[in-house]
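A quick aside before the break. I want you to see a complete sequence-to-structure record at least once, exactly as it would be stored in a machine-readable document. Don't worry about memorizing anything.
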Amino acid sequence: MTAPGIAALGILPQESEWWVLALLIGAAFAAGWIDAVVGGGGLLQLPALLLVPGMTPVQALATNKLASLFGTATSSVAYSRRVRPDLRTTLPMAGVALVGAFGGASVASFLPAAVFKPIIVAALVTVAAITLAKPALGAVTRLRYSGRTHLAIAALTGVAIGFYDGILGPGTGTFLVISLVGLLGYDFLLASAKAKIVNFATNLGALLFFIPLGAVLWPLGLAMGAANVLGSLLGARMAIARGARFVRVLFLAVVGVLIVKLACDIWGDAVR
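That is the input. The structure line, written in tokens, reads:
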């Protein structure tokens, strides 16, 4: 006699084997770890959800946001206790990012992701080149602006990346980190701490749009959220212990993977 499928437990949308749930839980744990350090966990978690038979893209996006919400909340608390990011910049940035993410999710069905992918790849290549060319970038905090100018740049960055997270998503944390480092002058560790709070807001903003649609698979999202929390705790502690240099190295690795993944998506869309 074979084991009952996961769908019988109400976790997945149709009959599936236990290994499917194990794969999703493993992806959520790894995504939480990566997100806590430098962002980019959606590169693992969202594709894993999209591979599940019977799951629609909007269900995958919505469930991914639910799971990620738990992870970013956990890493936000962990960083806040140890790194103590300045909330006078972070909270306003998070507020406008939430609005941007809600707006991005609401227009996602009208503007296909394929429109944005070539622009994102070009931006990531530029980011990687600048980070490699300037080893001192993000090593220490040297703020480039102050007062209203600092807040205005943070707010514009937050709403733009929030919109991106709502409409597409993968690499949101990575974009937040490099924006905080490159535009505002934070070091990589402090930028990661701030990025987690803003990323929590973008996940919440998109989720607020998806919940009324009935797109969230709650049992699966909560199970993956628990795994995401564990990964986030481990990743945050490791990043805090090893410092900005470790975060910078992993940042470059995640950017490289993101470039390859999006380039493959563009190629796949072109040959269809």
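Two observations worth writing down. The first helix runs from residue 18 to 37. The chain has one domain: 16-271. We'll return to this after the break.
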